[in-house]
Design a protein that fits this description.
alpha/beta, Rossmann fold, 2 domains, 7-stranded mixed beta sheet, 4-stranded antiparallel beta sheet, 9 helices, about 30% helix
Length: about 290
Amino acid sequence: MMILKIKTCPACGSKKSSEAVALDNNKKENYLKFSDQKYNRFIDGWLEKLVVAIDGCLDCGHHWYREQPSKEMLSNMYGNGVALLPQATADRRQPTLQMIREMRRLKGLSNLSAPKLLDYGSGFGRWARAASNVGFDVTAYEPSYERGSEDRYVEFTLVHDATNLEDQLYDVINLEQVLEHVPDPLGLLKELRMYCKPNTILRISVPNILRCPEGRHIWKDWPYDGCRVHTMAPFEHLQGFTPLSLKKLAGRAGFKSVGSVLGWRQYPIEMVRSYAGKFFPKIGHTFLLLKISG
């Protein structure tokens, strides 16, 4: 059983951190309850193999699990997962109007008639369907067969093996709610550079830990309150981003913000929130539109 021990901030690389929360007897009971209800007790035994604690960066505010399961362990965990709240199958696969509008704006930003889009970590394919709906030539990469839609007709190319993406270049890469799930977000962003042209647009959206549903009491009900999945539930979200930590991560990976007039035209609210977030972090936005630096 391979355990990843994270000693420096995965976002900015700082060595300055402090413990945000760790399991005590009461929280251990809630951990086991979450394991039972969400993963059919699959992660019970992990308590004997790794320390379940979250550290926070003193420089950029990023949070992460100090010890993390390997990719193989996480894949098996997701394979055993069930939805805590009832969800209609159609709702889990069909895009919302908001998703379609967002992909239409992104297509306008690319300024191409039929841009190639890679939806990396596509899940049930909702964003891929939204992108296809507005005219993108879509490739969706989803490593989990359980989440993929290979048993259904899809309007895009569905890939489960990343080697099938080799030698491919895309005009747009979409990372919707992906980076919080991976042990090494910096490594992933650097890896994605191989699929980029000089003008490729990388769209990233992750939860903002400063605006989480738990608010100021984020660690009180961690890891599980018996009802809803916590923002940093084990081991659903391995990373807790702030606007600053996401920008630091993007810069370290060799990306810069898209700050063109076209960007402001298509995404005025997001651009304003990004600027305001420099001074008021809690109203900032963990959403970035990026291009390769240099």
